[in-house]
Design a protein that fits this description.
The chain has 2 domains: 10-60, no CATH class; 62-122 and 138-146, Beta Barrel (OB fold (Dihydrolipoamide Acetyltransferase, E2P)). It has 1 helix and 7 strands, in the order αβββββββ. The chain is 5% helix and 36% strand. The structure holds zinc ion (ZN).
Length: 146
């Protein structure tokens, strides 16, 4: 376990995911598309999941997705989350390729509102941890209204 009190914050400077966090800071959802086979990949990958290619173009996505799975967290497993419980966390597949899923928070909803394949949309939210000079915006998702 890290001794860093800011432990839950992602490292927004880690090169394989830096474009993801830079886009989120601009309220844009971007993921890497392989330059060789055009497959969309998750942020943080250093090789394409289909062809093992290593060059990508970071594509701006619609921000729409579908709910793949979720859980309702009632107990904080890390002390930094003690003020956050209860909350909903889940896996959201992006509409551009539902096989690419983001681990995220689900907001503006209750557990009873959720179902598999529920249409959701991105909403950028500052992570609730003290950090560096600027807050870190993360892509959370809420049920899509229409
Ligand atoms: Zn590829």
């Amino acid at each position: 376990m890290s001794a860093d009190p800011d432990f839950p914050l992602p490292d927004v400077t880690w090169p394989p995911a830096q474009p993801f966090w830079a886009a989120a800071a601009q309220r844009e959802l971007r993921l890497p598309r392989c330059d060789s086979c055009m497959t969309l990949n998750a942020a943080g990958e250093t090789a394409c999941r289909r062809c093992d290619g290593s060059t990508f173009t970071w594509e701006r996505l619609s921000g729409d997705g579908t709910l793949y799975s979720w859980t309702y967290v009632r107990r904080a497993f890390l002390p930094q989350f003690a003020g956050e419980v209860p909350f909903l966390t889940g896996l959201v597949g992006v509409v551009e390729d539902p096989a690419v899923r983001l681990a995220t928070r689900l907001v503006e909803c209750e557990p009873g509102d959720l179902r598999i394949d529920l249409p959701v949309e991105v909403v950028f939210t500052a992570l609730p941890f003290p950090g560096g000079a600027a807050p870190v915006l993360a892509p959370y998702f809420r049920p899509r209204s229409a």
